Amino acid sequence: MSMIEFHDVEKYYGDFHALKDINLTIDKGEVVVIIGPSGSGKSTLLRSMNGLNTISSGKLIVNNFDLADKKTDINKIRREVGMVFQHFNLYANKTVLQNVSLAPQLVLKEDKAQSEKEAMELLKLVGLEDKAQSYPSMLSGGQEQRVAIARSLAMKPQALLFDEPTSALDPEMIGDVLDVMKKVAADDGMTMIVVTHEMGFAKEVADRLVFMADGEILEDDDTKSFFAHPKEERARQFLSKIINH
Ligand SMILES: Nc1ncnc2c1ncn2[C@@H]1O[C@H](COP(=O)(O)OP(=O)(O)OP(=O)(O)O)[C@@H](O)[C@H]1O
């Protein structure tokens, strides 16, 4: 069963051609890592998957909804397809527990006790149950990002999109966030699409790698084959550059 399907998708920002003839299908439960040089269109591709960016032409189906169809409820798509950003976007004036439990109360209409119980379980999953009453300003960047992941999971999404989730973090924080993402990936039902330069994570966790350059998908292969023999010269060069970095 497919979760996301791009058919002949194009995206223009004014005259700039940001996505070129994108054809990509991601199945339910798959973990896909998107890599490529800066400016190659990775964020544009990812953000189109939950309607944060609109496409210019082609067809994009997400969880059986056609994103170009005016009748599609984009808020429903955003509930089903969560997103974790490079900058965590937590509510500064809410506690960690409130950050995780408020959207389920407001959007999913869960009662307070139930949403807080679930939030505590998620905080446990991300290793932060002792920070439930803290405010974001009292946390490290890595802890904030783990709260942001818990907050996304609290909405019980079918898929989660990660846009360079560790690139704003100090190196010593990255491992803890990647460990949480590995736990999320271990849930067979969860579809994960991750834009990252963390090749260790990609190698260990991804089912597939997608390599983009200049708005195109140049290679889309299972992780093992990709790392063993990148078929595209530019993918090969990119990989050797970031691995030897
Ligand atoms: N809102 C916008 N308006 C105009 N151009 C944009 C807009 N957003 C992105 N672009 C351009 O589209 C291209 C692709 O950007 P995108 O952020 O998708 O690339 P990326 O591969 O994610 O890059 P990075 O790794 O640097 O985040 C870039 O050249 C960027 O300048």
Automatic annotation (TrEMBL):
This is Amino acid ABC transporter ATP-binding protein. GO terms for molecular function: ATP binding. It comes from Loigolactobacillus zhaoyuanensis. Transmembrane segments: none annotated. Residues 4-239 form the ABC transporter domain. Keywords: ATP-binding, Nucleotide-binding, Transport. Belongs to the ABC transporter superfamily. It comes from the Bacteria.
